[in-house]
Design a protein that fits this description.
single chain
């Protein structure tokens, strides 16, 4: 119901044109050569959805420019191939279907994610994961965050049932959807190594983290052979002093004079509350050690994100989706009352984001 409301709200704002979810802008797009059925926002540079749209037309392209669209960073974009590949398979030879299918795949993913989360926790508390504000941004911009975290949460669910083969497959799908989920595999490796050093019985087989690592490494080598550089190398950004970008974002939004300032202020408060809530229950949660290690790793990565990520609410709320979902899993591994303010905050911020989204 929440996503249906978001969809119709955005459709009304976008002249009932579903292709505007791609947010194709004036940069890297030739209006004379793009496929029929794609509308352009001429007064904006565009957004990441245009790269996923371009790859949905040809996921394994080796051309930077095709279909009237230029990929700004081909190896970096193409390393996140699975979401556009799914859309491509569902739209064989019909580019006019792609904008609609991108929305439908994300909508289906959030429904399935909610069902999986409900089996992990309960039907009600699954909303804590499904109603993350960053998902509404991804939904409105045709990006991959909902799909990747569907794979990640499904992998966690498979782990709880000791279905190692399925868990490995799902983690492999996750790293091909967005490379940040490799942190989950690395966390598994860290816990496995610790148990090995302590001569304890291992809780899971090594294939669960070796498999995703091999898949990720192989795909990176393919990208290097096509573009001369891996997606990892092409996407590296300068790291900031830990929490300096967050502090700057909070300080600059504190006056709350503009709508953007007020949005950034609310998001900064939201993230401060989420992190504090997890720290409060960290030692009491029943969540497996590997997911707690993953939370520490994701928090470390979030702390060093550069200002160009933190300064854009659309970017950092999407990027921090991994951290949020692991935070939610940790909280849901307890009976703490801290779950309630986190849920209320997520719902309120989601409502605010959709109402103020173009």
């Amino acid at each position: 119901m929440a996503y249906a409301w978001a969809f119709f709200t955005l459709m009304a704002r976008r002249e009932s044109d579903i292709s505007r979810f791609v947010v194709a802008g004036s940069v890297g797009v030739d209006p004379e050569r793009i496929p029929a059925g794609l509308s352009i926002f001429p007064d904006v540079p565009g957004y990441d959805g245009i790269a996923f749209y371009r790859l949905a037309l040809d996921p394994f392209t080796r051309e930077a420019t095709d279909f009237g669209i230029t990929l700004d960073n081909p190896p970096y974009r193409q390393q996140r191939v699975l979401y556009p590949l799914i859309v491509h398979v569902l739209s064989p030879g019909h580019p006019e279907w792609v904008p609609t299918l991108m929305v439908l795949v994300n909508l289906t993913a959030v429904v399935v994610l909610t069902i999986i989360a409900a089996r992990l926790t309960s039907p009600f508390w699954s909303l804590l994961i499904a109603l993350y504000p960053g998902f509404f941004i991804a939904f409105s911009r045709n990006t991959c965050e909902i799909v990747v975290l569907l794979f990640a949460v499904s992998a966690v669910a498979a782990f709880t049932r000791k279905r190692w083969g399925l868990a490995t497959l799902l983690l492999c799908c996750a790293v091909l959807t967005r490379e940040t989920t490799l942190v989950l595999a690395l966390s598994l490796a860290a816990v496995y190594g610790w148990q090995l050093l302590r001569r304890r019985e291992r809780d899971f087989p090594a294939i669960t983290f070796i498999g995703p690592g091999v898949v990720y490494g192989t795909w990176q080598l393919v990208l290097r052979s096509w573009w001369g550089v891996t997606g990892f190398e092409a996407g590296r950004i300068d790291a900031a002093i830990p929490f300096s970008s967050y502090a700057r974002n909070f300080a600059e939004s504190l006056p709350r004079r503009t709508e953007l300032m007020r949005t950034h202020f609310a998001e900064c408060i939201f993230w401060f509350a989420v992190v504090c809530a997890v720290i409060f229950v960290f030692r009491r949660t029943k969540v497996a050690p590997q997911w707690r290690v993953a939370w520490i790793a994701y928090l470390g990565l979030a702390s060093i994100l550069a200002w160009d990520v933190w300064g854009d609410q659309m970017s950092f709320m999407r990027v921090l989706g991994d951290l949020y979902v692991v935070s939610a899993l940790i909280l849901l591994g307890t009976t703490s009352r801290m779950r309630w303010p986190m849920l209320i905050g997520a719902v309120s911020l989601s409502f605010y984001v959709v109402l103020h989204m173009r």
